[in-house]
Amino acid sequence: MNYDCIIVGGGHNGLVCSAYLARAGWKVLVLERRPMVGGACVTEELWPGYRISTAAYVVSLLLPEIEQDLELKRHGYEVLRRVPSSFTPFEDGTYLMLGPDAAENHREVSKFSQRDADALPRYEQLLTQIAEKLEPILSVTPPDLLPLPKQWRKRSFGKKLRDAGKARNLYKAFESLGDQLPEAIELLTGAARPILDRWFESDQLKGTLATDAIIGTFQSVSSAGTAYVLLHHVMGASGGARGVWGYVKGGMGGLSESIAKSAKEAGVEIRTDAAVAEILTESGVTTGVRLETGETFHAGRVASGIDAHQTFRRLISEGQLPETFRAAVDRIDYSSASMKINLALSELPNFTCLPGDGSVGPQHRGTIHINALMQDLEDGWFDAAGGQPSRRPIVEMTIPTSVDDTISPPGQHVASLFVQYAPYKLADGTWDEATKNAFADSCIQQIARYAPNITDTVLHRQILSPLDLERVYGLTGGNIFQGAMPLHQLFSMRPVAGWSDYRTPISGLYLCGAAAHPGGGVMGACGRNAAVEMLRDGKSAT
Ligand SMILES: Cc1cc2nc3c(=O)[nH]c(=O)nc-3n(C[C@H](O)[C@H](O)[C@H](O)COP(=O)(O)OP(=O)(O)OC[C@H]3O[C@@H](n4cnc5c(N)ncnc54)[C@H](O)[C@@H]3O)c2cc1C
Question: Which atom of ligand 1 is nearest to the CA of 275?
């Protein structure tokens, strides 16, 4: 069967890419290894009546133009706002609740520091202004800025011109930051901790904000690069307002399903349970793919929505890639220490610092930060750097059933625990069932320090170690972003320097997933940008 393009992997980015290509008149086939589309943005009915966002759990970054172009609302996408957005309980009986109401936030932070309460709006304004100026960079293909030798990659005159234009736009974006430029540079390249230490004095506020800086990273909050993750979190407004993260009705799969429906309406063919074993090439040009079953499909264009390691080291046969490129792919950092634990609960957690009557309260709606003090974050990382799961893990707990009654049996709840740090490589042993269960027990015990009833309310649990994230979702090293996101793996350097325009050394082969710029997160930008570049190149002549 011949197609204009085959997409390897039906993650949300692959689906976005397919929809844009089909809307431009291309005949597109999406091949997904799992029984359902969505990749890490998925809902799975793990236990009867419980529909779980097994990996990603909140949305904000999705580009608004994708939502509009693909008419996602018409196809069922609905965001449920979370007000308040965060709740941090402390063991001394106090808590910090933050949300969209500035006056309320001021009152909350004043409980710990009047100075911090006054500083918070200025800090948020700074991050917002920088994010607003730099955000447009996410939705365009980055220019090649490095003077790499010709044998690395030949650039056509047209590309050089386009790159020069984009470099100028980048310069202008930075110029428009004016006095904020030095702070923006620090946010883009520096460590989160010194920034937070400068702005604030209360550990309760700093710890709560700092959790955003380490999420998905295997770095300490004092490591260079973590400030960018802080900034990344105030980008996007899909949750209802800038930097506000929302739940997707029906779970995160509701978003992927809506993209799939839009794609199908535009003519895309989607096959699940279809694992690609090889991307076929002839004389350095893509010709199609072969499935693990042996079935082959032909297309002059193939876009891979899976990570660079899987694409180039597993699906491309030896000797097809220039040595410099292959070596650069081998250098990509996939380190990870994130784990996901999904729970079915018979009742809501009852927090000692803000007891409830069993019904949903404001403490249940947003992200609940467990062990979010600066020292906990540092100690947690230190354990993991030595190859041990954190003894006092940092848990981001979300309870989507607090606002969505479609995902659990009546009266019952689901809780999602995003946990750090759980290193992919353990100094002693591996992530076998005993290790996973012991760590999950320890996470639940940590929550019980703040909400003692949790221990008796767990009806079911799914534990996804970094190794499981690799096995189930195909994420090398369990890295939730298809490759870590320090500065040297962002923008013009993502996935590797010289190849950030979604093309690859194999003619007709593109990357369209989070492995490419602008990286991880449910954003759709990688898929959309890749489609723009493919449409520029046009269909293959053969
Ligand atoms: C545990 C976890 C929590 C997260 N939390 C959030 C969050 O709350 N909010 C947020 O914005 N982001 C979050 N992220 C990050 C975000 O989910 C990902 O960056 C994003 O979903 C990546 O989408 P993608 O389409 O690029 O790739 P993926 O989602 O990785 O999709 C790739 C697809 O390719 C398929 N595939 C792999 N190999 C093959 C093959 N050989 N043949 C065919 N198909 C194949 C996979 O099964 C998968 O469906 C989280 C990620 C994880 C893992």
Answer: 42
Pick the residue whose CA is nearest to atom 4 on ligand 1: 56
For the record, the structure tokens of 540 come out as 């293959």
Is pLDDT at 147 greater than 90 in this prediction?
Answer: no
DSSP E strands: which ranges in 315-382? 338-345, 367-370
Statement to judge: residues 156 and 136 lie in one domain: yes
CB distance 196 to 366 below 8 Å? no
What mean pLDDT is predicted for residues 380-396? 97
Which DSSP letter does residue 92 get? T
Decide if 308 is inside a domain. Answer: yes
Domain total for the chain?
A: 3
Predicted TM-score (pTM) of this structure: 0.97
pLDDT over 80 at 243, yes or no: no
Task: Look at residue 155 in the predicted model and tell me its pLDDT.
Answer: 87
Report DSSP letters for 166-222, one per residue. Answer: HHHHHHHHHHTTGGGHHHHHHHHHSBHHHHHHHH---HHHHHHHHHHHHTT-SS-TT
CA dihedral angle for residue 232, residue 237, residue 238, residue 243, rounded to 10 degrees:
50
203 shares its domain with 262: no
Name residues contacting ligand 1 (CB within 6 A). 8-14, 31-34, 39-41, 55-58, 61, 275-276, 305-306, 310, 340, 418, 469, 473-475, 480-482, 513-514, 520-522, 526
Mutate to test the pocket of ligand 1, among 7, 29, 33, 424 (most ligand atoms within 8 A of CB): 33
Q: Which of 15, 41, 245 to mutate to test the pocket of ligand 1 (most atoms within 8 A of CB)?
A: 41
Q: Are 357 and 321 in contact (CB under 8 A)?
A: no
* Cα 39 to middle of ligand 1, angstroms: 4
Closest ligand 1 atom to Cα of 291: 42
Q: Which atom of ligand 1 is nearest to the CA of 523?
A: 11
Integer CA distances (angstroms), 289 to 142, 298, 527, 531, in order: 28, 7, 19, 19
Same domain flag for 343 and 457 = yes
pLDDT recorded at residue 136:
85
Does residue 272 fall inside a structural domain? yes
- 182 and 195 inside one domain: yes
Reply yes or no on whether the pLDDT at 535 is more than 90.
yes
**pLDDT at residue 239 tops 70:** no
β pairing state of 247-248 and 2-8? unpaired
| Angle subtended at Cα 132 by Cα 129 and Cα 138, rounded to the nearest 5 degrees | 145
Domain that holds residue 410: 338-421+423-464
Residue 509 DSSP code: E
Q: How far is CA 459 from CA 47, 413, 444, in A?
A: 10, 10, 13
Please report where in the chains the tokens 């759990």 appear, as a residue: 57
d(CA 513, CA 529): 10
* Residue 310 DSSP label: I
Lowest average pLDDT, out of 150-159, 180-189, 424-433, goes to 150-159
Ligand 1 atom nearest the C-alpha of 338 is 1
Lowest-pLDDT choice from 158-167, 258-267, 391-400: 158-167
